[in-house]
Amino acid sequence: MRCPFCGHPESQVKDSRPSDDGAAIRRRRSCPECGGRFTTFERVQLREITILKRSGRRTPFDRDKLARSIAIATRKRPIEPDRIERMISQIVRQLESLGETELPSSVVGEMVMKQLKALDDVAYVRYASVYRDFREAAEFATFLGREGLSESGEDDR
Ligand SMILES: [Zn+2]
What we know:
alpha+beta; three-stranded antiparallel sheet; 157 residues; 2 domains; binds zinc ion; single chain; 41% helix
């Protein structure tokens, strides 16, 4: 693995251990040239998946991007980081197991919402409000009511 600091073509593995509920190997590496230290993750990738966005653009599926969107939704919520990491791995496995090389972004969005809903109501609502892109406050209120997550906590039906 090339050193990201000085570009030296080789680095040494200092430590290697499973992480991510056994779904990944985490390696601590160091560069013999500049002494720089960095971490790499080795994961199974069954196939490359292309995501077809609503705009019609195609982009390679990016696990880190998925992880960032989930990190935003779960920010400051009382959820174990391991739990989130496992959820991400589970979503990726589900996506891969669909056996498609191209998937609409809505498939990923629905999968994330389903997982978040089981995990944390607040994270779910945060993600859904971004993902569904509610144009009107009324749309959002209707959504919350339908999901039984009315913010006021009152039964308004
Ligand atoms: Zn280096």
